[in-house]
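Final report, Chapter 2: Outcomes

The project's central promise was a pipeline that accepts a single protein chain and returns its three-dimensional structure in a standardized token representation, suitable for archiving and comparison. That pipeline is now operational. To close this chapter, we reproduce one record exactly as it appears in the project archive, with the input sequence first and the structure output second.
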Amino acid sequence: MLLNELFKDYKKNEIYDFVREMGIKGCSSYTKPKLIETACEFLLDKNTMESRLGLLTDEEFSIFEKAVNAPVALNSFEDEHAAYEVYEVGYIGIADSTAIVPDDVKEAYLGFSKSDNFDEKRKRFSWLKVCLHFVENMYGTAPIEQTAALYNTKTGCRESAEGILEMLKSFPADKLGMNIDEKNMTITSKLFEDKEVFDYLTEEQSGKPFYEPTYAQINTLYKEMYLCDTIAYKKFKAFLLERTDEVEDVEDIVSQVWFDLSSGTKTGQEVMQAVINIDGLELSKEETDELLKILQEVNNSTRMLFNRGYTPNEVYTLNKDKKSEAAPVVKEVPKPEEIMSAFAPEADFENNAPVFPFLQHSNLNAAKTVTAPKKVYPNDPCPCGSGKKYKKCCGR
């Protein structure tokens, strides 16, 4: 297999967009074969290859080097995630849960000598990539100084805001995923390029500090794609497992609930309704009441984009410490009983504060004039049209 075969199923305009995003200009009149040829020549260039492979973590680079020698079976989610990152930089094909490096990529990689500081530089840039993933999912927009604070949580990694800025400017053009504002020393996810969406985000975040994660939390969010290690999420998972033998389906449900609540793309009420209506989940009134209470706890313990990474419970504590009477998530908080009554009219809901109901207007979808950023989540249908879930297809 050659590198150009990875492009065969793409449309001409998709390949053109890919070439343009990589920073190659003057290709608007190219035919599809010429665009593919241009993309391959660029990707096989020594400097390009070193720059793009330099974004891979140790696990990802290990998958690539193994696949250079022979196709690699991807037997775990971790392997699939690592292989997908190599696929994203353009140097691997994935078919039938097997990672394959094209022959011309092997030849190019084995034919050049890596820079003396390649491995050291790769470790630095790949860690910054991991930190940017946290910024995108938990902050949306942040000072570069805050990004430096994340970067410096890893032992042996120390950079100033100015140093991080220079690293960001060295990223491959299509792999940064952030817009840099040098004047104000901030970065913003390209998901929030729309001014109205950006303004809504910053208005919701106003007055809230940035959550300071640990190294482990930054790494976990990148590797596992969610942070569901709280007692509430464990209770939620246990509740579902007691009522189904489909462990993988339960993992899907739990991770999707986290994504929906954390990103704000669905209201808590919508999440609650979706869970209650899961096919095959037959619940008694008592079980429904129990599930609603668990989901309330899940909501309150979810790290949220609109809280700059804090959970509603943590925001409540921060506000309480400031002796503020303002609600931590929204300005008008309906009573918990009113929220619950839409789904369990007779539920005996005890309001043991702090409790933050599943709010209708503290997220992107609820803003009447704001359209949520187009982000594909693991359990969404894959945009490629295969009919598979994103995480089982192009999101591997």
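Archive annotation: Strands lie at 72-73, 93-95, 98-100, 141-143, 178-181, 186-189.
This record, like all others produced under the grant, will remain available to the consortium after the project formally closes.
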